[in-house]
UniProtKB/TrEMBL annotation:
This is NADH-ubiquinone oxidoreductase chain 4. Belongs to the complex I subunit 4 family. The keyword Ubl conjugation does not apply. It comes from Hydatophylax nigrovittatus. One of its GO terms (cellular component) is mitochondrial membrane.
Length: 447
């Protein structure tokens, strides 16, 4: 793992050179190819050291981080054309990727905390520095304070565990080693991750951050940053498994009820970006509920949904940005009649929205089937809530597609120029892995 971290540091230095916009993206994909060549079988850990390592849980999340970071550069072509602090922009993305790789590959709880909180800084700089909306400072404060309020209790909980066990290595700490097992420790250790997911009631920072962020900020927020919360819960539940069995029912019910309420809120959104952002809260609420059951199918389904949602939601934000660059508005009332203006782009809207509502040949379908099975096995009472959430998830996806694609356009057709080959490639690189991973995961389950 250390060689990939050193490569990440070298990319940060490379960003200060001139005319390296596409070179940085090529280096990212070269890193990803090298990482894919590393052998991994089952749950075996490779590159084991005292600080950094990698197992099957962090393996695909690191691949997703490198993949989305490369697509962020491709989607930010306008920054390249305007040369708006281009070196700082590339350095910011490279530093963010370095923080994400370190977060997913560390075995030490304190190091994990440092990298987990350190990844907040580049995202905040993306919103404040390259966000085009006037309320980006307020969105930055939302993101900062929601995260920082719960980060100090997490640090105190990590120090308490170190005082009890004299070790911060994740695989060397278990709930039986702790002398105090109470509700406070459970919520202190999970609080920062619940905000990062985000869970219902602490989710208000996410739509605000998405609305004010540039396309690269929205892609990394939806693609990777929300997955940090799920990854942290997977690691911490190993330590708090005994407490979780007695307290998870409250969080599961809150996540499912919150998912139902937020899915209804999606029908009242007039901003396309806000609708996609709220749909992320619905999917992450379902993911959290399945993860807290601590069953094999629940954890596996949550992991598949994290990977699938990272690709699908990032692609949807790209589509919304394509409309915004042409019509200078994200309002649903103004973005109408696209089917007659740009049929090829309408096809991509259909494919990504069908993946968003877990249609066949999508990784989200396999993940949600496993999540629904685990939650129904956990409690039959959840069957009604699961049915409603699934129904409304399909409903707001179809609502967005029908409202944007059909009808009569209220804008001048001269404002709508043809789609570029770069944009087709960007959407293709979101959609193809989303469906190939479904076939690979299905083959793995059947064999």
């Amino acid at each position: 793992m250390m060689k990939f971290i050193f490569m990440g540091l070298s990319v940060v230095i490379l960003c200060f050179m001139k005319n390296v916009f596409w070179m940085v993206q090529n280096v990212y994909y070269f890193m990803m190819i090298l990482f894919m060549l590393m052998p991994i079988k089952g749950y075996l850990i490779f590159s084991l050291s005292y600080i950094f390592s990698c197992d099957i849980i962090s393996y695909f999340l690191i691949l997703l981080s490198i993949w989305i970071s490369g697509l962020m550069i491709m989607a930010s072509f306008k920054i390249y054309l305007k040369n708006f602090h281009l070196s700082l922009f590339l350095m910011n993305i490279s530093f963010l990727l370095l923080m994400l790789i370190c977060t997913f590959s560390t075995l030490n709880l304190f190091m994990f905390y440092l990298f987990f909180e350190g990844s907040l800084v580049p995202v905040l700089l993306l919103i404040l520095g390259w966000g085009a909306q006037p309320e980006r400072i307020q969105a930055g404060f939302y993101l900062l304070f929601y995260t920082m309020i719960v980060s100090l209790p997490l640090l105190m909980g990590i120090f308490f565990i170190y005082g009890e066990v004299n070790s911060l290595m994740i695989y060397m700490v278990s709930w039986g080693d702790l002398s105090i097992n109470n509700i406070l420790l459970y919520f202190i250790m999970l609080g920062a991750f619940l905000v990062k997911i985000p869970m219902f009631l602490v989710h208000l920072w996410l739509p605000k951050a998405h609305l004010e962020a540039p396309i690269s900020g929205s892609m990394i927020l939806a693609g990777i940053m929300l997955k940090l919360g799920g990854y942290g819960i997977i690691r911490v539940l190993k330590i708090l498994s005994h407490l979780n069995m007695g307290l998870n029912s409250y969080l599961i019910m809150l996540s499912m009820l919150g998912g139902l309420l937020v899915s209804l809120m999606c029908f009242f959104q007039m901003d396309m970006k806000a609708l996609v952002a709220y749909s992320s809260v619905v999917h992450m609420g379902l993911m959290l509920a399945g993860l807290l059951t601590q069953t094999c199918w629940g954890v596996s389904g949550a992991y598949l949904v994290m990977i699938g949602h990272g690709l699908c939601s990032s692609g949807l934000f790209c589509l919304v940005n394509f409309n915004y660059e042409r019509l200078f508005s994200r309002n649903l009332m103004l973005n109408k009649g696209m089917l007659s203006m740009m049929p090829s782009l309408s096809l991509w809207w259909f494919m990504l929205l069908s993946s968003n509502m877990a249609a066949p040949l999508s990784l989200n379908l396999l993940g949600e089937i496993m999540l629904i099975s685990s939650l129904v096995m956990w409690s039959v009472v959840l069957m009604l809530l699961l049915g409603l959430v699934s129904f409304f998830s399909a409903g707001y996806s179809l609502y967005l597609f029908a409202f944007v694609q059909q009808g009569v356009s209220s804008m001048n057709l001269n404002n709508y120029y043809l789609i570029e080959s770069r944009e087709f490639l960007l959407l293709l690189l979101h959609w193809v892995p989303l469906n190939l991973l479904f076939l690979y995961s299905l083959y793995t389950l059947l064999t």
